[in-house]
TrEMBL record:
The lineage of its organism: Bacteria, Bacillati, Bacillota, Bacilli, Bacillales. Keywords: Carbohydrate metabolism, Hydrolase, Magnesium, Metal-binding. It is an enzyme of class 3 (hydrolase). Its EC number is 3.5.1.105. It comes from Corticicoccus populi. The gene is chbG. It holds the Pfam family YdjC. InterPro entries: COD_ChbG_bac, Glyco_hydro/deAcase_b/a-brl, YdjC-like. This is Chitin disaccharide deacetylase. Gene3D superfamilies: Glycoside hydrolase/deacetylase (3.20.20.370). Its cofactor is Mg(2+). One of its GO terms (molecular function) is chitin disaccharide deacetylase activity.
């Protein structure tokens, strides 16, 4: 079995970047995905280049902060110019598909301009799996020839998916020490584990409700060891 331990939200704040780098240097995290509209993107790029063994993908955003495009995004934003959708996007009025594609393409192009190699694509709050916008994610994965994070709604596109399944239970109240034992039960050929390690800083307190659990994740991810059966991807 191959196990990918991915840390989401790279670039959100300096504390999150520091936590992810620590979880990579002294823990089991082997990949991360960057939010190109995050508060600490330049710092994240700098740290990624200092740690070339860390695979870096993009964390496409449609539910936090502001778009990178300044025009042609009216269906994506509220009157304050921020993304109008949030983690409870299901059931909301969907945005224009072309605007989604254009904004996400801009985010990917901004990533490429950093000089980092794009490893894979996923999204903040899993919005790339939403039926109303998933076609844009599929198109971009094919266009840039990189794999896309697994979701049930994308299962018939296995040829472009990063893994056979996504393990999401290492989060919040369901964080626990026996992570690899739980992952092994899935019996999938390739498993991606979603994690969110980080150090809580003032900027994070202003931009996320997921706080102390990030530090708990960091503590566990730097303490446990990858077993022999859990091959790196």
């Amino acid at each position: 079995m191959k196990v990918i331990i991915n840390a989401d939200d790279f670039g959100l704040t300096k504390g999150v970047v520091d936590g992810i780098i620590e979880a990579h240097k002294n823990g089991v995290v082997d990949s991360t995905t960057m939010m190109m509209n995050g508060c600490s993107v330049p710092y994240a790029v700098e740290q990624a280049k200092l740690h070339p063994d860390l695979k870096v993908g993009i964390h496409l955003v449609l539910t936090w902060g502001r778009p990178l495009l300044k025009e042609g995004v009216s269906s994506l934003i509220n009157k304050e110019g921020e993304f109008r959708l949030n983690s409870a996007f299901s059931g909301k009025e969907p945005p224009d598909k072309n605007e989604v594609y254009n904004e996400w393409k801009q985010q990917i192009e901004a990533f490429i301009e950093t000089g980092l190699k794009l490893h894979h694509i996923d999204s903040h709050h899993h919005i790339h799996s939403w039926d109303e916008v998933k076609d844009a994610a599929i198109t971009l994965a094919k266009e840039y020839n990189v794999p896309l994070r697994y979701a049930d709604s994308l299962s018939e596109h296995q040829e472009i998916l990063l893994s056979d399944t996504l393990y999401t239970d290492f989060y919040g109240e369901t964080i626990y020490n026996d992570l690899f034992d739980a992952v092994k039960v899935t019996e999938a050929g390739i498993v991606e584990v979603m994690t969110h390690p980080g150090c809580v800083d003032e900027q994070l307190k202003q931009n996320s409700s997921y706080l102390e659990f990030r530090e708990k994740e960091l503590e566990i991810l730097t303490r446990i060891q990858r077993p022999e059966w859990a091959e790196k991807y």
